[in-house]
Amino acid sequence: MLLYITIISFSLKTILCQNIDVLSNILESAQSAIKVIEADIALMEGIVEDLQNDVVKIQVYYECLCPDCRIFDSTSLLDVYEKLHDFLEVRTYPYGNAKTNVHDDGTVDFQCQHGPLECYGNKLHACAISILNNNMKSIPFNACMMDNKNEGKGSDDRAAEKCGMLLKINAEPIKDCAKSKKGEDLLKYFGDESHKVNYSYVPFILINDVEWDQEKEPDFMKSVCAAFRVPPTQCTEDIRFNIIQI
User: Fold this and answer.
1) Nearest CA to 90 among 144, 52, 33, 134?
2) How far apart are CA 206 and CA 35, in angstroms?
3) Residue predicted with more confidence, 174 or 243
4) In the predicted model, what is the mean pLDDT of residues 103-118?
5) Do residues 126 and 94 touch, judged by C-beta distance below 8 A?
6) pTM of the model
7) 121-159 tens-digit pLDDT
8) Residues 212/223, Cβ–Cβ less than 8 Å
9) pLDDT of residue 182
10) What is the pLDDT of residues 227-238, one digit of tens each?
11) Dist CA 195 CA 98 (whole Å)
12) Mean pLDDT for the chain?
C-alpha cells in the first residue's frame, strides 16, 4: 500500500513539473510575442508621427516685373499656398536677375532687369516679407501686387495701397520701408541668398531642394503633391476636381 502511494505521489510530481515547464514555455513565448508587438507599435507610432510632420519646402526666386513671375506668383503659387499652407514651408526671394553694386564708400545700389521700377518693387516685396513676418499675409499681399489686373505694371505704391485695402493690411510701413535703408538692406540680403543658388532664369522654383521641371510637369499643384510621402487630402480633392472639370 505504501509503495502504491509513493508511486502515485511520484507520478503526480512528475506531471506537475512537466506542466510547470509547459506553462513556463508558454509564458516565455507570450512575453516574446508581447515584446515584438510593443516594438511594432513603437515603430508604427514613429512612422505616423513622421508622416504627420511631412512638410514640403518650396523656394521661389523671382523678380516683380517679370511677366512669367507675375503669372506664376499670382496664380499657381497663390493657389497652392492657399490650399496646402498647413503642409508647406514656403520661402520667396524677390530679387531675380538683378545685380548688387557695393561701392568703396559702403553705399549700395542695384541694377534690375526691368529697370529702377522693378528695384523699387522688389524692395516693396522684401519689406512686406519682413514687416508682415507671416506667409499667410505676405504671400497673398505680394501676389496681389503682381496681379496683371493692377494698373500699370503693378508692384508699386498704388498696388501696395490697393492690396492693403483688399487684404486689410496697413501698406504705409511697407512703403516707408521700401524707401529707406532697411529696404536697401533687405534687397541686398535677398540678392545674397539668390546668388547662392546660381539660377539662370526666373521664376526659379525648388521643391524640396529639387528644381521644378515645368516641361515635364507643368501643373505646379501636382508637382508639389507628388513631393509628399503621403499627400494630404487637399491634393486628392484637387485632382478629383480637375478630372471632373475636364
Assistant:
1) 134
2) 43
3) 174
4) 96
5) yes
6) 0.78
7) 999 999 999 999 999 999 999 999 999 999 899 999 999
8) yes
9) 98
10) 999 999 999 876
11) 10
12) 86
Question: Are residues 100 and 107 in contact, defined by beta-carbon separation less than 8 angstroms?
Answer: no
Tens digits of per-residue pLDDT, 69-80?
A: 999 999 999 999
Torsion angle (degrees, nearest 10) of CA 216, 217, 220, 222: -140
- Whole-angstrom distance, CA of residue 31 vs CA of residue 40: 14
In the block, residue with C-alpha cell 523678380: 63
